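# step 3/5: fold
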Amino acid sequence: MRTSLRAGLAGVAAAAAAIGVAELVAVVTGARSAPLIAVGGVVVDHVPGPIKDFGIRVFGVHDKTALLVGTSILLAGYAFGVGVLALRRWAIAVIGIVLFGLVGAAAAITREGAGFASVLPSLIGAVVAAFVLRHLLRESSPSRESSLSPDRRRFLRDLGIVAAVAAAGGVAGRMLTSRREVNAAREAVALPTAAGAPPTVPAGAQAPGAVPYVTPNRDFYRIDTALVTPRVDPNAWQLRIHGMVRNPITLTWADLLRRPMVERYVTLACVSNPVGGDLIGNALWLGTPIKDLLDEADPLPDADQAVQRSVDGWTCGAPTAVLRDGRDALLAVGMNGEPLPVDHGFPVRMVVPGLYGYVSACKWITEIELTRFADFDAYWVPRGWSAQAPIKTQSRIDTPRDGASRKAGAVTVAGVAWAQHRGIAKVEVQAGDGPWQEATLAPAVFSDTWRQWSLTWTASAGRHTLRVRATDLDGVTQTSVGAPPEPDGATGWHAVTVDVE
C-alpha cells in the first residue's frame, strides 16, 4: 500500500474517532452540539430555497439523512487530505485539524439555547483526531517499512475497526440515551378525555383504491429542519404566550392537560408537496383550541401575526385572525389516539387547518409571540417563501399509478382531493383528450380533511393519460397552470400514464 494512501486512510480513521468521541461528549452537552449535527444545522438554516426544494423532491422525508451522509462524505475527503499533508508538514495538518474543531465549535455555539459547553464536543474531538493521526503516522513511517510492514497492515486494519466502532458507538449512545428518557416520559402520559363524543367517520369515507382515510402515525410525512429530533421532557415543558398582548400567559404541561380538550380530524399538507406528491396526511388530533388561549391573552388590535417558536429555535408565523376565526386550530397533545410521536412534536405542537405547515405547524412548541408581519419574518420568509400561505385546492390520483398496466374494460380510478377549511364540492377525471367525467365523492367527514373519490373508467387498448381536477365549496376549480412549490404551494393537474392491453 502506498505511503500517501496509508496516510490518507489514517486521516479518515482519525476523523472517525473524533466524531465518535464528540458524539459521546454530546450526550452530556446536548445532541445538537455534536459536530455533524451542528454543521448540518447551519447548512439547513442557510441553504438556498431551490436547493432545499431539490433535496425534498429527490429524497423526500429522507432529506436529513441525505444531508448527514453527504456531510460525512465531505468530511472523509477533507480528513484524507489532512492525512496526506501530515506526511510532509505536520504543522499544516495540525492547522487542518484545528480548523475542523473550530468550524464545529462555531456551528454548535450558534444553535438555539447553546452555552459554552456546546463547543466541547468539537474541540475534544479535534484533540482526539490529532492524537490518533500522529499515532498512525508513526506506525506507517517509511523508516519501518521493511521490518514491520505485515504488522503495520494488521495494526491499521484493527485500528480502523476500532475507530469505526467508536464512531458508531458514540452516535448510538447519544441517540439511545436521549431517546430512552423521553420515550419513558411519553409512555407515562395519560391523555385527557376530549369533551363530547369523538368525531365519527361515516361509512364509505374510504374510497376503493385510495390511500387510507386516516394516515397511521408511522406513515405520516415528516418535513422539518431538525437534524436531531428535539426530545422534550413534558414535566419541564412550558409555553409562553406574550408580546403584543394585554395578559401574558405561561402554561405548564399540567396546566395544559387541565384545559378543555377536543378531538378533530385535520389534514396537514407541506408546502413543498409537488403536484401528485405524498407530503400530506390526515389524522385525529387531540388538543385545546388556540382561540381560547389567545382570547385569554387578549392580543392588541394590530397584532396580526402569531409567531410560534420551537424548542430548537425554529419559527413560523400564522395570521392571528385565522387562529381566532373559529376553525379548529389546536395546541395538540395527541395523534390518532396516542400521545404525539416524538418525531411529530411531542409533547405539544400546533395544528391549524387550511394553512401550509411552514406557517402554522410548529412542533415541539414552547412560545407564541403576538407581533406584526411588518415587524418580524419567520424562518422561511427570508428564504423566499410567502409570509401567509393558505392551502390551495388540489387533487391526486392514487390508483392506477403512473406507468401501470391494466386490462381493457372497467378500471377503477381513485384518489384524494383537499381544500382544507373550505371542503371539496366536485372531482373530475379526464382520459386523454376526452370529456371530463365527474367522479363519485366519498361522504364528507369535515371540511378540514381530504375527501376521497373514485370513478369507473371504461378503458380501451393503448396508452392513456389520466388527469384529475377538483373544485372546492367556494366554487374555485384548481388551475391547470403548473407552478413549483415555492413561494406558496404547487399548482397544476396531477396526471398519470396507463398502458391498457
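# step 4/5: annotate
The first strand starts at residue 238 and ends at 243.
# step 5/5: archive (pending)
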